[in-house]
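Exercise 7. Predict the joint structure of the components listed below.
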Amino acid sequence: MNAEREAAIASSADVVAVRRLVRSAAIEVGLSLIDQTKIITAASELARNALVYAGRGEVRVHVVENGSRRGLKLVVSDEGPGISDVERALTDGWTTGTGLGLGLGGSRRLVDEFDLLSEPGKGTSVTVTKWAR
Amino acid sequence: MSSHADVERRLGELLRTHEEQVISRWTQSADAPRDELTELYRAILRAIEEGGRDLADLRGLLAELSRSRARAGYSPAETSKAVFGLKGALYEIVVAHADDEVLRGFIRFARLIDDLGLFTFEAYAEAREKIIMDQAEQLLELSTPVVKLWEGIVAVPLIGTLDSARTQVVMEKLLETLVETGAEHAVIDITGVPAVDTQVAQHLLKTVFAARLMGAECVISGIRPQIAHTIVTLGIEFGDIVTKSSLADALAHAFRRSGVQVSGGPATRVTVRAEQA
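Solution:
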């Protein structure tokens, strides 16, 4: 199975829609309740980052397989200003906005695989994966 | 070449003479009450006879029709089809009396109906939007009750997603209730909040600090295992804010803090006495 679902992020209502989308996919893949909540929260953080810093973005949800394990892969991308200092952005408590500064670093800890690609002026793409245990 | 006025006069005549027949046909195709369509028909007739300049009455009628249909759950297509149906109904009459003036009149009439159909669609969409907005507002009000648990103890059971707008309402309501009731303890229960991300946490923290500024102590309850896990992993610190897993624990905590003692087992009567301060 290689189902792929997409959602656009253009308003905070869309962030809620992303959470719902990820929730249904996470249940399908068979993630535990705790892992469901973790990936949903990570999706919420990343989607809100795209909304706040880039104004809009999109989320792609893939169901992935690795041997007998299934997992959920999310790609959250935007065409915003990009992140000039990725290390710093991942530091807890650091933010250029008004939030707590925990979203990006926290998301990295909430998932099993985390890949951040950002080019200043071009945009940011974050790929995260959570495997079912 | 006949003038516009002639064309309109001829069309008006045709509509007037065959009123019964056209309305009957229209009623069949439009699936709408006959008297409603008759009223609309007369308004269209008046508008045509007056040269199609003053459409205010007609628009008012159509807007009313759209609103009532939006509320009754008709689809927008069904609603505007009711208006477009008049073209079909008139077509038969036009074919039977086809002459140059009538045909030109029919084209102008068709254009008018198209405009009116589009207007109906717009009015329908507006009415629907208004319904949705009303519902959203009602939901916002409904979903944020502040309940009194005990003398001096209030609780806010939060259900669903916390966005900025809702948090604002929650915060305001809670602070107002604190003033009204003079309560010194507030419990914010998040059992019904599906996920706590950094934004929700920030909103919660702000609410707690605002309540503190007013002299009330806040307890956050309903922290389920998966939420606790997520909060820890995200690295959110609740500092010295008291959190409990259930509303019952939070109430017990508030009782202890306010000096209320609960005694008695399940089978016996529960007696409560407040210690004199």
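Discussion. Residues 4-131 of chain A form a domain with the Heat Shock Protein 90 fold (CATH 3.30.565.10).
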